Amino acid sequence: MMNCKQATRLLSDAQERPLTWKERMAIKLHLSLCTGCRNFSAQVSRLRQIAKAYAKTDADDAPRGD
Amino acid sequence: MERTDTASSKRKTNQLPPLADPAYLQELRSQMLKFAVLQLADRSLAEEAVQDALEGALKNVHAFARRSALKTWVFAILRNKIIDILRRRQRLVEASRLLGDDDNDDATDALFDARGYWHAEERPMAWSQPAEETRNQQFWRVFEACLNGLPETQSRVFMMREFLELDSEEICHTEQISVSNLHVILHRARLRLRECLENHWFLEGERA
């Protein structure tokens, strides 16, 4: 079975290119057994949303703490 | 900036129109400059791009009653300027420096054990839902600190991909790297950025 380092690499690559059928099956198997990588999988897309929102927020209207 | 000097005494007044608040403008300018220097690796080009973006905003002074509106606007202009500059030139980087950056990334390797499985204490946890962090000003400070904590190549390439939204081909062209190199860099950047955000933001409350 693929390890977590390889699995996170494929999950990261999946943001860049379509995975092959074989890669998708291997990931599916790994994720079914690994909570850490399941969380990582959700987080790579969240990182993408976060980076897109950079400098595009209303946050600066909040009272300043300093 | 001299023309707005008289407003400096009103620094604390958040309601002040952003373009009339030199302290705020200064802070915004330095955020923009930091970002532009990271992306362009050229201080004078970066300063020029930031200056252009700010001057564009000054012409539309009435549109920016709110600070967030100004920041969004100038960063949108700056983003387009950086993309233009990157597309027009081919960065002259030493490939060896980039490769060295990847190969000796102990901080990333330390997340996994010798067999490539997560160390128990490094295993990603579930992040809070719903995703409201982007509305929180404090979150963006943490985000910037985490980004600045990455090796320079990783933070630049990550933001090229995810904020400037350049595609792989363009990034490989401007950085003079192969696609597989790019994927290694992005993998490492994501591992480290998520770890930093988890430690300093998403799990902060639970540990306190």
Task: Write a concise synopsis of the structure shown.
The complex is a heterodimer of chains A (66) and B (208). With 66 residues, chain A is an all-alpha fold. Chain A is built from three helices and no strands.
Q: Largest beta sheet of chain A, briefly?
A: none
| Beta-strand proportion of chain A | under 5%
List unreliable stretches of 5+ residues of chain A: 59-66
Please identify the oligomeric state.
heterodimer
- Uncertain segments of chain B of ≥5 residues (pLDDT<50)? 1-13
The counted number of beta strands of chain A is 0
Distance between termini of chain A? 51 Å
Helix content of chain A: 55-70%
**Count of the separate structural domains of chain B:** 2
Helix count, DSSP H or I runs of 4 or more residues of chain B: 10
CATH superfamily of the largest domain in chain B: Winged helix-like DNA-binding domain superfamily/Winged helix DNA-binding domain
The helix-and-strand class of chain A reads: mainly alpha
CATH topology of the largest domain in chain B: Arc Repressor Mutant, subunit A
Q: Which term fits the overall shape of chain B?
A: globular
Order of helices and strands of chain B: HHHHHHHHHH
Helix-strand pattern of chain A:
HHH
Rg of chain A, Cα atoms, Å: 16 Å
Task: Please give the radius of gyration of chain B in angstroms.
Answer: 20 Å
Mean pLDDT of chain A: 86
Distance between the termini of chain B: 43 Å
Tell how many strands the DSSP assignment of chain B holds: 0
How are the SSEs ordered, and which strands pair?
The complex is a heterodimer of chains A (66) and B (208).
Chain A: H1 4-13, H2 21-33, H3 35-53
Helix pairs in contact in A: 1-2, 1-3, 2-3
Chain B: H1 22-40, H2 43-58, H3 67-88, H4 95-103, H5 106-109, H6 137-149, H7 152-162, H8 168-175, H9 179-202, H10 204-207
